[in-house]
Design goal:
Layout (H helix, E strand, L loop, with lengths): L1 E3 L3 H13 L4 E4 L11 H11 L4 E10 L7 H13 L8 E6 L8
Parallel strand pairs: 1-2, 2-3, 3-4
Helix pairs in contact: 1-2
Length: 106
């Protein structure tokens, strides 16, 4: 079972579950709706959490220009920062993208 974290609190809760249950694994990230609120401290915390042996991927992360047009720049900044935090052993990334997938590669 893989559980996706989407914010600092859910990431921590999922890590606790993954530690408690052998068949639970974590994918940690910050959902695009938090783009305006994620701080440098949050990114540092995520970097530390990603080192946990129970984490198998980064995610869910993504871009939503359909419902979140007003903060496109912030969403892209967060999207670029979070995958760059991935330790080499954890190269899997879970992406949520609302329409226009090509924008991920531009």
């Amino acid at each position: 079972l893989i559980l996706n974290g989407t914010d600092p609190q859910s990431n921590e809760e999922i890590l606790k579950l993954a530690k408690k249950y052998e068949n639970v694994h974590a994918a940690l990230g910050y959902f695009h709706t938090l783009a305006d609120d994620v701080s440098d401290e949050d990114i540092f915390l995520l970097d530390e959490q990603l080192e946990n042996d129970n984490v198998i991927a980064v995610g869910e992360i993504g871009l939503d220009y359909y419902n979140g047009k007003e903060n496109r720049k912030k969403q892209m900044e967060l999207f670029e920062i979070v995958p760059s935090s991935v330790p080499p052993k954890k190269i899997k990334v879970v992406i949520e993208k609302e329409k226009k997938w090509y924008e991920l590669w531009d």
